[in-house]
Amino acid sequence: MVWQRPDGRQPYELRPISFHPGFTRFAPGSVLTKFGDTQVLCTVSVSEGVPKFLAGSGRGWLTSEYRMLPSATQERKARELLKLSGRTQEIQRLIGRSLRSAIDFEALGERTLTVDADVLQADAGTRTASITGGFVALAYAVNQLLQQGVLERSPLTGQVAAISVGLLQGEPYLDLNYSEDVAATVDFNVVMNQHLGIIEIQGTAEEGSYSRTQLNQLLDFGEKGIQELLIAQKEAIANWDQLVVGE
Ligand code: UDP
After folding, report:
1. Which of 64, 133, 159, 173 could bond to 96 as cystine, CB 3.0-4.6 Å?
2. Is 125 marked as binding a ligand?
3. Angle ∠(45,51,54) on CA atoms, nearest 5
4. Distance CA 202, CA 238 (A)
């Protein structure tokens, strides 16, 4: 039996992806990111100073906070319950680690970038949309800080994007939506840089196990999705050539 995708996509096809920069006004980076029906508002703010362990080092820091809105899912969840669940902590740490891989913290100086990922609508793949859109928001924030003279040089050393992949009926599928995520026996998230170097892989067998061959197939699908996302990010970021240095 072959899995029929509810939206008729090919197994290796992404959902329609879009980035909407300047979605809100006050944060230097604000990008509404859509992967099909998944919608995440990614905002990047900057503050002077760093956590204690970096004080006096001359180096900056990037941290992330992730939340779903109460009505982001099919059944409303109380705000209290959405606060700091294990899932929330895991996701916000993943977003922070992923985006930190693209930053030269000496160039940032003793400042902290905070990436807020607020999920307006969750149809699976919210963490990967947060990372991919978070990078676009980060570039917009850096652009503004350069223009304001807060930064002398860009701290962006590369690009980061992420996508989900899963196994359904033993076969790989790219960028699962919620009904697929529920049916998948293996749930995979891949984070890569502009050289398709692996930053992080999360790959969980929800049922049974998966083989080395299937792992390679999942990575091939992830890589293909990320190649497309890297292009979409580049197209969404103004002043790309001045922003991303050291590629
Ligand atoms: N989900 C939900 N309630 C929850 C957690 C998740 O409805 O408390 C749904 C939501 O659509 C989410 C999907 O399940 O996008 C997959 O969640 P997962 O934890 O795998 O993370 P994601 O794929 O969003 O990164």
Report:
1. 64
2. yes
3. 115
4. 31
pLDDT tens for residues 145-203?
A: 999 999 999 999 999 999 999 999 999 999 999 999 999 999 999 999 999 999 999 99
Closest CA to ligand 1's atom 14:
124
d(CA 3, CA 60): 46
Backbone angles phi, psi at 229, to 5 degrees: -65, -35
- List the beta bridge partners of residue 150: none
51-97 pLDDT, tens digit each: 999 999 999 999 999 999 999 998 999 988 887 889 999 999 999 99
Confidence check: pLDDT of 47 > 60: yes
What is the pTM (predicted TM-score) of this model? 0.97
ipTM of the predicted assembly exceeds 0.90: yes
Which sign does the torsion angle of CA 105, 228, 71, 90 carry?
Answer: negative
Q: Which of 81, 175, 181 to mutate to test the pocket of ligand 1 (most atoms within 8 A of CB)?
A: 181
Alpha carbon of 4 to ligand 1 centroid (Å)? 21
